Alpha-galactosidase
Amino acid sequence: MAKITFIGAGSTVFAKNLMGDILSYPELAGSTISLFDIDDERLRTSEIVAHKIANTLGAPAKIETTTDRRRALDGADYAICMIQVGGYKPGTVTDFEIPKKYGLRQTIADTLGIGGIMRGLRTIPVLLDMCHDMEEVCPDVTFLQYVNPMAMNCWAISRATKIKTVGLCHSVQGTAEDLAHDIGIPIEEINYVCAGINHVAFYLRFERNGEDLYPRIRQVIDEGRVPDWNRVRYEMLKHLGYFVTESSEHFSEYTPWFIKRDRPDLIERFNVPLDEYITRCENQIAGWHKMKALYESDEPIEIERSPDYGSLIIHPMATGTP
C-alpha cells in the first residue's frame, strides 16, 4: 500500500481536504499517511483530523506524525508539499512593506515581481534540500508541489534534482466554476481545454455539448454583468480573446497595465485589491483558533470531495487505471 507524505501538514485545512480525497478511494484507504511539520502544535491538530477522517470513512489508514523530515519521507511513494518559508510574519509582511516604501504596490506578491522573487529566494533552497533528501530516501517518489512561486520552484527542482515533480494550484478548476456561474450553466455540463504555465494559463476551448461558450462569456461584458472583483480578467479577454485562469488580483500583478504608481484611477476603475493577501492572511489567522477548537472537539468532520487535482493524480498512478 502507498505511503503518502504531507510536508507542511500543519496547514490543517488544506491537508484535511487532501486526506479526505485520498482516503475516499478504496484502493488508497489503507495507505500510510505520514504527517510532517516543524510546528508541534499544528501537527497535533492535523493528526487528530487525520484520525477523524479515517474513522469517518472507515479507512484502515496508518497515520503517523513526525518533526523529522527525512523520517517522514523515508520510503514515500508520494510527497505533497504545502509549506510557507518565513511564514506570514516576517516573510509575507516584509514582501509587502519594503516595496511599498518605494512606491511599489502589490496584491498577492507570491508569483512574480519583487514579492515573488523574494519568496522564491527564501523557498527554493528549502525545496532543493528537501528534494536531495528524497533522492536518498525515496528516489522514485512523485512530488506534488503546491508552494508558490510555483513556476520558479518547479523550474528550480527540475533543473537541480532528479525528483519527478508536478506543480499544482486551484485556479483552473476554480475559474471554470466562476465562468459557469457568470453564464448560468452548471459546471457539470461544461468541458474545457486549458493550456499555459501554472498561474498563467488560458481556456483555449470552453464548451457545452460542442457549443462554443465564449460568445456567452463575452455577453457578460456586453450586458454590463462583469463581477466587480473580476474586472481585470474580463478586460484582458477583450484584448487577448481568451480567458485567463488566474484571479484578477493575481493577474493585475502579472502585467504592467493595472498597478501604476501615479495612476490611482486604474486601481479604482479595475477594482484592484492592493494588499489583498495581507488581508486574507490576517482573516485566516484570526479564525484559526476557532477552527482548531472545532477540529479537536468531539464534533465529527464533514468530508466532501474537493476540486483539487492531487488525489486525481495519485489514484491512477497507484492503481494503473485512467
In short: The first strand starts at residue 3 and ends at 7. DSSP finds 13 helices and nine strands in the chain.
